[in-house]
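Action item from last meeting closed. Structure (293 res):
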């Protein structure tokens, strides 16, 4: 029975550019397929896989996914990557969902493999460099009808290189790192001092700083700043919140500080980013993408 169920899942394979949900935008640029889609109501999606490896930038709503023995509940501004042919089952919550898909055709897969890279590991990102690269791709693709192909190609190359070059470093990481990362995830909006974090980790501040960059790829301050920026992006989905209030709520000193950090990471201001991920006057997924008649 298990083997039959697995075969059934694999037979439900979606071709490039095909997703469940209402398609708001689909664009093929030099072998990269970009799809923006919406779900306007709660529903369970059929078990399926995709013929191409793909990224999913989750922009808002409620969305969960079961793949293998793992279940992931996505928050806004989470980026996931799934290799080709990986079966999974998704569920849309009561608020619907809005997302942006990035699929890599055989051209891109061959380019990655020729550089000794592999697109074989599924993972989820909540603030890493890949998230901001995906947001930049979203901005470029939305610049219809004439997206900049060179810019899109270079961003795709960066995104795939970062993905293919990602290795699992947790086996060699010190035992205190996981505890520290959990603390940062929970308390990033609060003021933090290196000495206090080092005391909690029971290591020297210099050793903490060096090890943190070695195993995460980021400086400690940069990592916290990106967590704050991601939270601010999430708050920007609330139309009644002013950018000044969001800045303080996310842990930035003021709106000017928030703007500088946002431009440094994403290349655009918070105001432009807000209009990019939330259409003017839209208060729900249903208004962004009405239910097809």
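Sequence:
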């Amino acid at each position: 029975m298990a083997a039959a169920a697995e075969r059934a899942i694999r037979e439900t394979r979606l071709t490039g550019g095909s997703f469940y949900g209402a398609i708001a935008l689909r664009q093929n640029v030099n072998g990269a397929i970009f799809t923006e889609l919406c779900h306007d109501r709660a529903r369970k999606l059929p078990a399926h896989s995709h013929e191409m490896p793909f990224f999913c930038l989750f922009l808002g709503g409620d969305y969960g996914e079961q793949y293998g023995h793992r279940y992931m509940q996505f928050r806004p501004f989470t980026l996931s990557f799934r290799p080709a042919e990986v079966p999974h089952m998704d569920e849309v919550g009561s608020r619907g969902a809005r997302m942006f898909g990035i699929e890599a055709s055989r051209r891109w897969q061959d380019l990655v493999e020729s550089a000794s890279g592999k697109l074989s590991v599924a993972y989820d990102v909540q603030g890493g460099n890949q998230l901001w690269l995906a947001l930049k791709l979203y901005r470029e693709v939305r610049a219809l009808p004439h997206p900049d192909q060179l810019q899109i190609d270079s961003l795709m190359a960066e995104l795939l290189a970062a993905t293919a070059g990602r290795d699992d470093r947790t086996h060699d990481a010190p035992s205190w790192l996981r505890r520290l990362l959990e603390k940062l995830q929970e308390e990033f909006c609060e003021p933090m001092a290196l000495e206090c974090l080092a005391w909690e980790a029971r290591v020297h501040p210099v050793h903490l700083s060096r090890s943190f960059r070695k195993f995460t790829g980021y400086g400690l301050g940069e990592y916290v700043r990106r967590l704050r920026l991601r939270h601010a992006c999430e708050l920007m989905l609330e139309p009644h919140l002013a950018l000044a209030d969001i800045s303080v709520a996310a842990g930035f000193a003021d709106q000017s500080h928030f703007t500088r950090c946002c431009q440094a990471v994403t290349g655009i201001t918070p105001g432009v980013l807000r209009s990019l991920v939330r259409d003017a006057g839209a208060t729900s997924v249903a208004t962004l993408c009405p239910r097809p008649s």
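Note appended to the action item: The domain at 2-164 is CATH 2.60.120.10 (Jelly Rolls).
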